[in-house]
Amino acid sequence: MQIKVRLFDRLRDTSGKSALSEDMHENSTLRELIEKIATEEGTEFKKLMLDTITNRPLPNVTILVNGRHNRFIDGLETRLKEGDMVDLMTAMSGG
Amino acid sequence: MRKAIVPYFDLCTGCRTCELACSMVKFNAYVPRLSHVQVTTESNGLRAQPNICEQCEDPPCWRSCPVDAFRRDEKTNAVLIIPEKCIGCRNCVVACPVNAIQFDEGVHKAVKCDLCFGDPQCVKYCPTKALEMK
Amino acid sequence: MANSYAGKILHVDLTKRKGVKKQDLDMNFAKTYLGGKGFGAKLLYDMVPPKLDPFSPQNPVIFCTGPLTGTMTPTNRYCIVTKSPLTGFFSDSYAGGDFSPELKFAGYDIVVIKGKAPKPVYLWIDDDNVELRSAKGIWGLDTYQTQERILEELGDKSVKAACIGPAGEKRVRFATVDSSPHRQAGRCGTGAVMGSKNLKAVAVRGTGKVELADPKAFDEAYWKSREEIEKSNDSLTYRKGGTPAFVGFANSQGLYPTRNFYDGVYDKAASSLDDVSQRKYLWTREYGCFACPIHCTKIGRIRRGPWVGTETDIIEYETTGLMGSNCGIDFLEAVAYSTALCDKYGLDSISTGNVIGWTMECYEKGILKKKDLSGLDAKFGNWRAQIELVKMIGERRGIGRILGEGVARASKAIGKGSEEFAIHIKKMETPAWPPRGSPGQAIALACSDRGCDHQRGWMPAYEIGGYSWPFGGPFDRLSIEPKKSQCVKWEQDHLSALYSLTVCEFSRSGIQNDTYAALLSAATGWKIDYNEMLKYGERIWNVIRMFNVREGINRKADSSLPKRFKEPLPSGPAKGHKITDEDFNKLLDWYYESRGWDKNGIPTKEKLTELDLGNIVKDLKK
Predict the structure, then answer these.
(1) Would residue A57 count as lying in a domain?
(2) How far is C101 from C108, CA to CA, in rounded Å?
(3) B 94-123 residues with CB below 8 A of C?
(4) What is the ipTM of this complex?
(5) pLDDT tens digit sequence for C549-578
(6) What is the architecture of the domain spanning C246-427?
(7) Rounded CA gap, C96 and C316, in Å?
């Protein structure tokens, strides 16, 4: 299934892309998606996303599924479905 | 071999942190008008330019001083004003072609960059490394 | 003991020939209200009787600095407090640059200007020497020209000036006060109040000093703040891309105002207005306000198209929204040009974009015709029309005469149903963070002290971003719960305290609360921790609320959301969301409860007494 991913701020700057389309198995989890992207987009990107020791997303990384923060769904175990939109960002401010 | 602080305008944001660092270390207060580095805006705002003494090889300030109130720092070769000798005539302030010398009205003497005797504070505090001692 | 206050208040009465007076800064007053917003709040409360016409000579314009102004931290904004001609309520307006520190170096914490000069003047503060100078030949100039002329006349390029442009002179109700380079104090029409006083500018030269009570402790806290900024993704994102770095986020979440706030997703290229695009086509240099290591703002030149060579600064996020997508325009250079025009005229670009978006909707609906608009084909997307409308508002000619009154008054004057889509709360034009898709924002906007404002509590961070606040964790995006209202209250108190120092809110993206407390304590010599700072904030907020209560604010005023926000959001991940009256009233009740106010939004005697505002309690009875 195709999962659309949007990248913002430093993640966008580091990867040079603002959007990705990831081919995932049915019922893949958010964790699997994050690990796949972090590996594909290189070391700098991975360092911004994941804690290098635990491999978990860093606390200041925001991961949304269809505009909702993942912790209000099933966290990283959230199961994805065809057409889902995942947003990844490390900063959020007004102005 | 002279040392001087070299500005890089492309890195300068015009924030004037250097002016505050200099005045704090020299005068124990924030008084940017007396800072030995002065940041001006040039080219209609398109460039911020730190302005600071170049520690000239043949300094016009020294040449213009009627009482020879100058000397060189042994370690850095910086051009230093000798405060006890300075009579406050301001010849050096006027002589400097880049206006790099300030005048402290409080003590009625000219003051200038002394490279902080080898540990320049403006360089240390600058957030973008727009100043370098070379 | 030395401290970071200058120690003097400058009073200027423009009506009198010899109207300059200096007063010592009372340290009890300083210790109760801190500075900046706090000083302004108390002084305005004391000086302005209820129902005073904001254009009355008696309405003061109060420039306030804070205890950290003039020191080495990014806390160097100036705060101008006055009664707003746009809303009729309290207003505080901020801008960065280095005007504010110059006031401190000249020896003043506060400058209170009242009265009205018989002919246009500018105030020249040259350290101890204060005089009024004729603005003949300067009145009428745009803000850029004004800066040049004043500096030329005074013969010193190091002078700092805050001035108005033609919009302020002509009393456009959302006119700004501008300082160089490209800094604007906006939102409330302070420029119009200065214009009504025949006050073209305030120019300052300060050769004095600002001292610290504990330079060593301050230095420690300073290096800590530098470290915090380098570790903060928010600060680093601001550094690289400024506020437009968040265009992508807003648009992706359905929060980007599109075509007069009809929608929240811009169907054209929002990315043509973002930081990547601006860096490529506009920016030349990084600009950092006084003592700021983040340097979020940029200065540049338009490099292609009809306006090649025009000097611009960064198009801030808000402006990309209101002058760009809100008007259906994605032509970057056109938005840069019309924004530069706003800056020159001295117009708030948020309000201007909002009013023009409304005008475009009126035109598309046939409520305003070409003949009403001097022949303009003012449909959404027509950037040529936008440029002309900016000029007409700045010069107050044609339709600009009405538009310059603000969208609330303009829609009332035009009628024909146009009031239904005038997007404002309490007559202040809504900014680019609307509430559909982020319901906590509804309370933040509606209950801001100066009108409909995004800088008194920003809820997307908690509702969407998963951010925690000191008294709780993040919120589920669309939930309606008491803690959201409590969070808004905390943001308001927090920002009131910070704005009294006068912190730049973009620096608070990185600098931690305890570090601000440490900087403040080291500068003043007072031991103030963060919890106490919050109490100051709450006190200041309540003084301002009481000022507004005297002017008639109540629950009804707080509840006046635009009709559009009660209609389903057409697009984005929160498609279909709307702010229902039921949800809003719940949030509002919880907000008043958390504030200790009654159900009508009036502070109670107990709350005011708790905050040491006993002297204000008597005004409750009236």
Answers:
(1) yes
(2) 10
(3) 105
(4) 0.96
(5) 999 999 999 999 999 999 999 999 999 999
(6) Orthogonal Bundle (1.10)
(7) 14
